[in-house]
Specification:
Helices cover 40% and strands 15% of the residues. It is built from 7 helices and 9 strands; from the N terminus they run βαββαβαβαββααβαβ. Helix 2 runs parallel beside helix 3. Bound molecules: nicotinamide-adenine-dinucleotide (NAD).
């Protein structure tokens, strides 16, 4: 991905942002868009070798408390604040409840759910500092109409709100992300930290590329995934990134504890079959 030049006077000018899983797919699109809109962006990922110039990289495993602490410490040393945290790192799992063993359940929940708690807990002192800074908008309770505060955006999924076949463990993990988003929003609203999530439908990322390559008939599998979304196409990583930037930014200053679907209409619409 070629990173586009930053917009002068962008809405995230002077802000510091961190994106977990920011080296690929949705996370990379989010990191690039936040940077384009003016933020100093840190990519926290297992592998940061192929991240484009202009994004700071910190090798970090969200399942490892020491690695998370070190990454957050580095940002704190350099900036003393964190305005935006995007908890996006996630992994998939396929199958019904009969198919995943206890180790896989532990690992997927560790990355997708506990990872968010781990990174958020480590980052909260910096998020609170950003929210309390003179340019941070003050607390939601006392900062007046312009209060924006700091923001956490979690990458959830359509799997949290619709029953998808062969996704028992993954759906359980994303259902937990949705509940965690709301609970965190309640816990931190009075500290000026907003917490929301995006629920992408099937998005065209390297993850889906891997999934398609492993299917017996990749073209048929892609066509089935496209047909499942009422718009008849996959979501792009850039469309999800735009939604994340909205939730993280000043335009969403009054929005917390919500989920924003970016799913080609998959969650809410019931179309009639096309009549030939
Ligand atoms: N692609 C989709 O269709 C889709 C749909 C809904 C939700 N999502 C969610 O979007 C997020 C990103 O998915 P994507 O499609 O961009 O996937 P991706 O595989 O392209 O990128 C995921 C990134 O997360 C990183 N990562 C994985 N485990 C990590 C760990 N333990 N610590 C730090 N980084 C880790 C990977 O290295 C990778 O860079 C995930 O949370 C996923 O559940 C994806």
């Amino acid at each position: 991905m070629i990173r586009q030049a930053a917009i002068p006077g962008g809405e995230f000018d002077g802000r510091v942002a961190a994106v977990t899983g920011g080296a690929s797919g949705i996370g990379l699109a989010v990191a690039s868009e936040l940077a384009r809109r003016g933020a100093q962006v840190y990519v926290l990922d297992l592998s940061v070798d192929e991240v484009p110039d202009g994004l700071e990289c910190l090798r970090c495993d969200v399942t490892d408390r020491a690695s998370v602490r070190d990454a957050v410490h580095s940002m704190g040393e350099r900036h003393g604040r964190l305005d935006v945290l995007v908890n996006n790192a996630g992994i998939g799992a396929q199958g019904t409840v009969e198919d995943n063993d206890d180790d896989e359940w532990r690992h997927v929940l560790d990355v997708n759910v506990t990872g968010i708690a781990r990174v958020s807990a480590a980052a909260l002192p910096l998020l609170r500092r950003a929210a309390a800074a003179p340019d941070g908008g003050g607390s939601a309770a006392g900062g007046g109409p312009a209060a924006v505060g700091a923001a956490v955006v979690n990458t959830c999924s359509i799997a949290a709100t619709a029953g998808l076949p062969q996704r028992a463990l993954y759906s359980a993990s994303k259902g937990a992300v949705l509940a965690l988003t709301r609970a965190m929003a309640a816990d931190h609203i009075r500290e000026g930290v907003r917490v929301n999530c995006v629920n992408p439908g099937t998005a065209d990322t390297p993850w889906i590329g891997r999934l398609l390559r492993s299917a017996p008939d990749p073209d048929a599998e892609r066509a089935a995934l496209e047909a499942r979304q009422p718009m008849g196409r996959l979501v792009s990583a850039e469309e999800v990134a735009a939604a994340v930037c909205y939730l993280a930014g000043p335009s969403a200053g009054a929005t917390t504890g919500t989920e924003l679907a970016v799913d080609g209409g998959m969650q809410g619409l019931r179309l009639r079959p096309v009549q030939e």
